[in-house]
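Go through this pair.

…
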Amino acid sequence: MQNKILIVICFLVISIMTRAQEKNHITIDPLLPIFGTVQVQYERAVSDKMSVGVSVGLKTGSGIFKIPGINRDQISIDEFSFKGIKVLPEFRWYTQKSSNGLSGFYVGAYAKYQNFTDEISGIYTDTNQIDSAIEIDANIITFAGGLEIGYKLMIWERFFIDFLIAGPGVSTNKIKLVEKQPVPDEFYDDVSDALSEYAIFDGLNLDFRINGNQDTTIVLPAFRYGIKLGYSF
């Protein structure tokens, strides 16, 4: 059902794009490859001040900034290296009409679909001091939405810089772990405690338990920001 909704959204965005008669803008994020991701955005005007767009990203790993694993008394998990895709439809309203089109301050809304996978490996030591190998396939599917504000600066003829200043929102994250070989049930209690103290969750006071061989859903705040380089045609 969720995939069908995503397909409908992308179809509507593409349909509007094909009917538009204004400029096209294409952008890339020059910093994301450092984090193992390549992302391209296409934006097209539907009026003098409004546009729709879609970004597609491919994540091939963690890049040069590794995501640390979990190392506690009972748990030793290797570095995380998630891979997958993400798709972000967007709508923007530019606060002023400009001679070169789609530039200046803008506000808008976005949605995001993200599907990442990883192979989790490590060692777990239970209360009886018995070691168990951790071999788990992890899948995280994210649906998010929010608002955004930014500024697009034309720098030379058709080239521009797109500053995404803020993009607060909320995300629903479905986590599925499939064991390649069984691990003790208490492992999930300990890993849930460890994740609640993890950097990305620290300070959120979350109360959740990761489950094995079934879905776990976590709702988190979302936030987007960044700088993109683009070309209009």
